[in-house]
Amino acid sequence: MSLQSTTSQTVGPFFIIGCTWLNCDGIAGPDVAGERFTIEGRVLDGDGKPVLDALIEIWQANSQGKYAHPEDPESKSVETGFRGFGRIPTDDEGKFRFVTIKPGPVPGPDGKMQAPHLAVSVFARGLLRRLVTRMYFPDDSRNSSDYVLGLIELLRRGTLIAKKTANTENLEWNVVLQGDGETVFFDV
Amino acid sequence: MGRIAGYRRPFVGTQPNWLHPPYVSSIKRAPKHDPVHMPHTITEVTGPVFERNIIDVKAFDLTKQHKGEPLGERIIVSGRVLDENGRPVRDTLIEIWQANAAGRYLHNRDQHDAPLDPNFSGSGHTMTDSEGRYRFVTIRPGEYPWGNHHNAWRPAHIHFSLFGPAFATRLVTQMYFPGDPLIPFDPIFNCTADEKARNRLISQFDWETTMPVQALGYRFDVILGGREATPMEQ
User: Fold this and answer.
1) Of A101, B32, B112, B169, which residue is 20 to 30 A from A85 by alpha carbon distance?
2) Which CATH fold would you assign to the domain A16-176?
3) Where are the domains positioned within chain A?
4) Nearest chain B CA: its distance from A166 CA (Å)
5) Is the pTM of this model over 0.90?
6) What pLDDT, in 10s, does the model give residues A116-144?
7) Which residues of B touch A47 (CB under 8 A)?
8) Of residues B7, B134, B144, B218, which has the active-site annotation?
């Protein structure tokens, strides 16, 4: 039997009323091990204007590189209460902010480990399908050998790597939907 | 370790392009670069797992969230969530949101001059059962005007959000109603090139779930990405 996936439609401008109950900007609670970061950024459109009606969703492993999912074959443990999911709507200035831990490396398609990363979905009015991207961490030597980053032309790779800020626990990462500095999005 | 079986990519034309100029909001928000094709890794074949106990068991009924009954025509929206291989997607979260019977969303940026309904918030969620079935009780949403072009009206629709088993299977879509005269003129409905794929967004009137005296039934099945055959062990 072969069916075809239902076609995607935009979330529209009013998704907040349906999604708020599951909003989560604290992906890792205090009991979850790992190096802790606050990640802040903005979603920007092709005119550089903030996108006030975007929704960011995060999917990530824990600090040992284990996903809270039955198909992860690694024999590592996951902290109770760690789901690895975040959902953050942008505010009236197009900003989003969440707190999490840096995930551990997970296996990649080339048999090597992937650099630590967050899988990110972006939804918004005007986006007929979600956009999929990844956020990597700055100053991580594993970025240079990461299989997925290696698929991207060198000049654009930086769009996926968060920037350090004056506060070492804070990272900045913007999502540029279109134009100068356009974030790399993936076909998954 | 063996290679990971990914999820199938969509058939050509069955998913919208990001840029669809008749939908004006896509013009400044659609990326200019093509998305970079990547294989599915453990990151993409896993995804958030929601336990049944986070579900509000009353959240499937949008007509019972307030003291009084909402205005409008009560309806039952039900169906199955299957994958492309025809297998039920069980225990998966479904979220919906919609306008009230007058075509107004409970949202501060909705400026449509139609009344809010104190007995209707317009959001619900549920989880599919072991056969992939789900069921919502709600009211039929109203059509409403929007600023996309002159005399633009959105057909009546309900927004659906689904997770499925993996990051790769995440889907947000909209369900429409059969016979709605606005559908052929809607740039959002029309964003998908494949006509059959588009038309699958239109629910079907369903006698089986229609409840005597109570509510008309509409059936809407959702198909999520199916797993590729497991690759041979290396």
Assistant:
1) B32
2) Protocatechuate 3,4-Dioxygenase, subunit A (2.60.130)
3) 16-176
4) 30
5) yes
6) 999 999 999 999 999 999 999 999 999 99
7) 28
8) B144
Contacts of A70 in chain B (CB under 8 A): 49
Instruction: Residue B45: count other Cβ atoms within 10 Å of its Cβ.
Output: 22
Q: What is the sign of the dihedral through the CA atoms of B10, B14, B15 and B16?
A: positive
Residue with tokens 């200035």: A93
* ipTM of the complex model: 0.97
CB-count exposure of residue B12 (10 Å: 0-12, 13-18, 19+): exposed
Determine how many CB atoms are found less than 10 A away from the CB of residue A80: 9
- The residue from B105, B134, B176, B218 that is catalytic is B105
Beta bridge partners of B158: B175
Q: Do B3 and A61 touch (CB under 8 A)?
A: no
Structure tokens at A94: 């197009």
Q: Per DSSP, what are the bridge partners of residue B176?
A: B157, B202
> Which residue out of A1, A2, A10 would a mutagenesis test of the B interface target, given it has the greatest number of B Cβ atoms within 10 Å?
A10
> Which residues is B152 bridged to in the sheet?
B146
Q: Could you tell me the domains of chain B?
A: 48-224 (2.60.130.10)
For residue B34, the chain A residue with the least C-alpha distance is A185
pLDDT tens-place string over residues B18-63: 999 999 999 999 999 999 999 999 999 999 999 999 999 999 999 9
Active site residue B105: yes
Structure tokens of B130? 């072991």
Q: Is A9 within 8 Å of B172 when comparing Cβ atoms?
A: yes
Alpha-helix residue ranges (DSSP H) falling in chain A = 16-19, 154-157
- Note whether B167 contacts A59, CB cutoff 8 Å: yes
Angle at A22 between CA B116 and CA B84, to 5 degrees: 100
d(CA B158, CA A137): 38
Residues 6+ positions from A111 with CB-CB distance below 8 Å: none
Tokens of B84: 């492309």
